[in-house]
Design a protein that fits this description.
This protein has about 700 residues and is an alpha+beta fold. Helix content is about 50%, strand content about 20%. It has 5 domains: about 1-25; about 30-205, Sandwich (Jelly Rolls); about 210-410; about 435-635, Nucleotide cyclase, GGDEF domain (Alpha-Beta Plaits, 2-Layer Sandwich), CATH 3.30.70.1230; about 640-704. Strands 15, 16, 17, 18, 19, 20, 21 and 22 form an 8-stranded mixed β-sheet that branches. A hairpin with a 2-residue loop joins strand 16 and strand 17 (about 510-515). Helix 20 packs antiparallel against helix 21 and helix 21 packs antiparallel against helix 22.
Length: about 700
């Protein structure tokens, strides 16, 4: 054969080889290196599955049993025109062939497939060997439901060849209505189906940041729910908390980690689908209550509540094969709701409502993304999810807006608290807050006419001696200045001893104490303060002041009197009357402090050190005599010591005086006179005994 003939033969063989490659090329993809995009391969699908379909021959793929699909997604029900049914399940086979250049693959790295979306129950074969089993179809019922996003399928070492065949066996529900073809059955997205190194795939689908963001969203939602629990008037906190948690639930239910954890994904689909109407409903309620908190729900808001609640109820009671039908129905129902949100936020912006402008941009962005998500689910099926990013931006804007509102509310609250404090302080100038506490009231507005309470208290009455003669030498203005300067010094002394002033009666003070020790301590301290005041008066050329104080302890009625338009707080009872009577008796006994036996009986022994019984009196209007005691703690050290040492003899003498044995009483008082110079009460009793003896003698003489 000539050289020309040999060349022709070689050319013919090359041509036949090229033609053979072209004829088989439709079975094998042109990509020879990684990553291999499975979305660009020719796929062959058939209804049903048999053992021979695990690794079908090329001739089988060219038969009428298989349909050739040039582009993903592969939604099986519409391809085979599966009729609607409430419970039927169908099986399908998906196959594709691909070639790899093994020399350009790193032998030390594991390979894997990534399926961006696959369902509803399925298993995967490579070159006739099963490499993933998520199939659970028995007796015309799906036992294991595994619709999954971003499924990573590891390829056993050494299984890949130069020429490979990939087979997917699936089963899934027929469409339950004309609304949805059941897009979950098959390979649902256009892109995202690849063969590559496993580590690289895992890095591409890693969602740690998503989990961190969702933790923040959930915390943000719980924060607002807690805020609502503590401040129920602000319902928008409740709605926003539900909205934030619902969106987080949606993200987490469709996360890779959730799909890996749950072997059956029906529960995840339920959470993902039910969270969407809850999120929309709570978001609309949030907007309405945020901008119009005092208005009742409009008809459209009621329609929103009903329609979303209806979808949530449907998801809750129906099987998983009905989910998409009601999801698509919900898409129809929310068209008007999305329009309403657009209208609402634009209207709020035009009206100049607070926070409407900064909130509008973030809301409009998230609405556009929601619309994209719906259209992508129904039409485009790209699998591109933007809602997470839009929601993150929305959360940031809402944090700023709500934080700003909280700061403003906080400042307003502080301003109101200052005003209320000023009002309370002003009110306490007329009615002590301690009186309100004793009545069990938080504020003056809680007091009503006739409210009263019976309680044991200690009453202190204090009055300036000879005030009438003092006031006569002063003008009215000087009188008021004098009284106020005196009361200004005495009032803190009472407060320091845990008492409060119930009222001022001219120059007199009426104070109330819980404990008798506190009242007695206040009385002593008032005289100490008076001594300091008198030093200043004496140095300024004024005569010193003297005051008398009466103390009594007992049950008294605390309450309100007057008219509904004009109330006054007061205390009523014999305890009050006796205290006032003791104060007036200080003039007769020439002693600064008189204490009733009822107060003394309540005192601890250590508080009775400077007390001695001086007489028994009958209060006006009463028949029972009351023992009265002198408090001599303010006396000089020498006189105080002598009174303590002679207290027993003095008390014995008083007892004879009370029994009207005046002669014996006089004798005992006279025995005490010399050791106790300056004891005014002793002198008072000596004179009293002598007068009573003289009076008895006179009556006896007249009678004889």
């Amino acid at each position: 054969m000539s050289k020309l003939g040999i060349h022709k033969t070689i050319l013919v063989k090359i041509l036949f080889a090229f033609l053979f490659y072209l004829s088989v090329g439709n079975l094998f993809a042109e990509e020879l290196t990684l990553p291999l995009n499975l979305s660009k391969l020719n796929w062959y699908v058939k209804q049903g599955f048999a053992s021979k379909d695990i690794a079908p021959a090329n001739s089988d793929l060219e038969s009428n049993d298989y349909k050739k699909i040039g582009n993903l997604p592969i939604i099986l029900n519409p391809i085979f025109k599966i009729p609607t049914s409430f419970d039927s399940v169908n099986e399908f086979t998906l196959t594709c062939n691909f070639r790899l250049n093994s020399e350009r693959i790193d032998k030390g790295k594991e390979l894997a497939f990534l399926f961006s979306g696959i369902g509803e129950t399925w298993e995967v074969y490579l070159n006739g060997e099963k490499i993933r089993d998520e199939f659970g179809f028995e007796k015309n019922e799906i036992k294991k439901y595994k619709t999954q996003r971003n499924a990573v399928i590891t390829i056993p070492y050494g299984l890949l060849k130069e020429e490979n065949i990939l087979t997917i066996h699936l089963a899934g529900y027929a469409p339950t209505s004309f609304l949805s073809p059941n897009i979950l059955l098959g390979l649902r997205f256009k892109e995202g189906y690849i063969l590559d190194y496993e580590k690289k795939i895992l890095e591409s689908v890693e969602q740690t940041s998503l989990l961190l963001f969702n933790a923040v969203y959930i915390f943000f939602g719980l924060y607002h729910l807690f805020f609502f629990v503590r401040w129920t008037e602000k319902k928008y906190n409740l709605y926003f908390g539900i909205f934030s948690i619902s969106i987080s639930t949606y993200f987490l239910a469709f996360s890779n980690i959730a799909f890996e954890i749950f072997s059956d994904t029906r529960g995840l689909l339920f959470l993902a689908y039910v969270s969407q109407p809850l999120a929309l409903l709570s978001f609309i309620l949030f907007l309405f209550d945020y901008f119009y908190p005092s208005q009742v729900f409009s008809k459209f808001i009621k329609y929103t509540i009903f329609s979303n609640a209806f979808i949530v109820l449907a998801f809750s009671i129906l099987r998983v094969n009905f989910y998409l039908t009601f999801l698509y129905l919900w898409y129809i129902l929310i068209i008007s709701q999305i329009i309403y949100i657009f209208y609402f936020i634009i209207s709020a912006t035009r009206k100049g409502l607070k926070d409407a402008v900064p909130m509008a941009s973030s809301i409009l962005i998230i609405l556009l993304v929601v619309i994209w998500e719906i259209l992508d689910t129904i039409i485009f099926q790209t699998g591109i999810k933007l809602l997470q990013f839009a929601y993150f931006a929305f959360i940031i804007s809402m944090v700023i807006i709500l934080a700003n509102r909280f700061i403003e509310i906080n400042w307003e609250t502080r301003r109101l608290n200052i005003e209320l404090t000023d009002q309370r302080d002003s009110f306490s100038k007329f009615v002590p807050t301690q009186f309100l506490d004793l009545l069990g009231k938080k504020s003056a507005k809680d007091i009503s006419l006739g409210e009263c309470k019976l309680q044991e208290m200690t009453i202190l009455f204090a009055d300036i001696r000879d005030f009438t003669s003092l006031s006569e030498s002063m003008s009215p203005e000087e009188n008021f200045k004098f009284i106020n300067s005196y009361l200004k010094r005495m009032s803190p002394v009472i407060e320091q001893n845990n008492g409060f002033i119930d009222k001022f009666i001219g120059d007199a003070i009426m104070a109330i104490f819980h404990l008798p020790e506190e009242g007695l301590g206040a009385a002593v301290a008032m005289h100490d303060e008076l001594n300091t005041l008198n030093k200043n008066r004496t140095s300024s050329g004024y005569r010193p002041l003297r005051i008398g104080i009466g103390l009594n302890t007992g049950m008294l009625m605390m309450g309100t009197i007057g008219h509904e338009d004009r109330l006054s707080t007061t205390v009523i009872g014999d305890t009050v009357n006796l205290s006032a009577r003791l104060e007036s008796l200080t003039k007769e006994y020439f002693t600064p402090i008189l204490v009733s036996e009822f107060t003394v009986s309540k005192l601890q022994e250590e508080n009775k050190k400077y007390l001695r019984e001086i007489d028994t009196v009958i209060v006006k209007g009463k028949t029972n005599a009351v023992k009265i005691f002198e408090c001599f703690e303010n006396d000089s050290d020498e006189l105080r010591s002598q009174k303590i040492n002679s207290r027993k003899e003095f008390t014995e003498a008083v007892s004879y005086l009370e029994s009207e044995d005046y002669a014996t009483a006089l004798d005992k008082f006279l025995k005490l006179e010399n050791p106790l110079p300056g004891d005014v009460i002793l002198s008072f009793h000596i004179i009293k005994c002598q007068e009573m003896i003289d009076a008895i003698k006179k009556r006896t003489k007249v009678a004889s």
